[in-house]
Amino acid sequence: MTTHAPHASHTVTLPASLDEAVAALTAMPAAVPVAGGTDLMAAVNAGLLRPAALVGLGRISEIRGWQYLDGHALLGAGLTLARMGRPDFAALIPGLAAAARAAGPPQIRNAGTLGGNIVTSAPTGDTLPVLAALEATVIIAGPAGARREIPVSHLLAGREMLHPGELVGFVRVPLLHAPQTFLKATGRTGPGRATASVALVLDPARRGVRCAVGAVAAMPLRPLEAEQWVASLIDWDGERGLVPEALTAFGDYVAAACIPDPAPPEDGSEPATLPPAALHLRRTVAALARRALGRALS
Questions:
Q1: Which of 73, 95, 183, 236 is deepest in the core (most CB within 10 A)?
Q2: CATH assignment of 181-297, given 3.40.630.30, 3.30.390.30, 3.30.390.50, 3.40.50.720?
Q3: Measured on CA atoms in the order 257, 186, 83, 62, is the torsion positive or negative?
Q4: Per-residue pLDDT tens for 187-198?
């Protein structure tokens, strides 16, 4: 269904299926897809964006739920943050549910969607470090019923991009059946944008720890060496506990990997030091990583 405003520049299309939405975007290359609109409308209201046309995704029921598929959860891109925060979803993917509940006030969670978080790729997007730590993939719908699947980290890093007429339709997340944690720090009390966030998941089947740090860079960062180091210390066949000194060392390892010291000058002069704000951010990341691992192992 299409509603035409007095001027063609205000065309709004409301498709009923994912393929209809793709067809609409293909027919109108200048159109912008919109689901919850929490970021899009903020840009419009600020005068930063004037879309020639909109393709509304709110009527596409196939992307508003989830299903089980071969040891994975197939999540629709239209799932709202509020829906992901409910207890039944939290039992399925607790880290993603925790991130969704922390995403902001109710009006944001009721409108914002998983796919919107991914496509907007804001550094402070709360679901993004969890998806990176879970090594989730996105299923992209294209013209003529085409589908392709890529790691979500590739999309966030710009290694692979959406082509004209394509939409993120689903997110495939492995079901690890193991502890997952998400913690974030904000600049004020109560819901707010993250100044730093940490997602951590245990993968007992592969005897691994996966960690992703959000909000400190343009995309979530994976401290791979810190992950491998701490995984080697865990007794995977026993109680899996670690001494406090190991938790502290892990936090420092993660923080130093994500907020490194400045490179030494080539002329051999006195090396530069991090500014106070960066040092504070490093301490924040270290504390979050330490607590996240401690909670996952407790």
A1: 95
A2: 3.30.390.50
A3: negative
A4: 876 667 899 999
